[in-house]
């Protein structure tokens, strides 16, 4: 009986650990369209790593740039790229499009 309990508990533990591993980081979609980021403000959980999926829907390349996030990523026209950020302390972290800095602006808000 003791072996059976140990076996069942072992299986439950593996299931819980596997479930957490499969959950992974939260994912957020960020679109660049008409040389603007949509949405221009992204809210993310503080203290947690997040995956941004950036979809460049423009017909020209763009570069995601953020000094406060310490990230820089080239995005060819029509492409999707993944950018991992965090874990972040609570605060506001600005980003912009290198090639269209006047119009392509946004902020990540960690709460």
Average residue-wise pLDDT: 87
Distance between the termini: 48 Å
Largest sheet, described in full?
Answer: 5 strands, mixed
Radius of gyration: 19 Å
What is the CATH third-level topology name? Immunoglobulin-like
Helix fraction bin = 10-25%
Task: Give the strand content.
Answer: over 45%
CATH first level: Mainly Beta
Poorly predicted sequence stretches spanning 5 or more consecutive residues: 14-21
How many domains, in number, for the residues? 1
Order of helices and strands: HEEEEEEEEE
Task: Chart the SSEs and their pairings.
Elements: H1 2-23, E1 27-33, E2 36-38, E3 41-44, E4 50-56, E5 62-66, E6 71-75, E7 80-85, E8 91-97, E9 105-110
Parallel strand pairs: 1-4, 3-9
Antiparallel strand pairs: 1-2, 4-7, 5-6, 5-8, 8-9
Q: How would you portray this structure in words?
A:
- This protein is an alpha+beta fold and 111 residues long.
- The protein has a single domain (25-110), classed as Immunoglobulin-like, CATH 2.60.40.
- Helices cover 20% and strands 45% of the residues.
- The chain has 1 helix and 9 strands, in the order αβββββββββ.
- The strands form 2 sheets. A 5-stranded mixed β-sheet has the order 3-9-8-5-6, with no helix packed on it.
- It starts with a helix and ends with a strand.
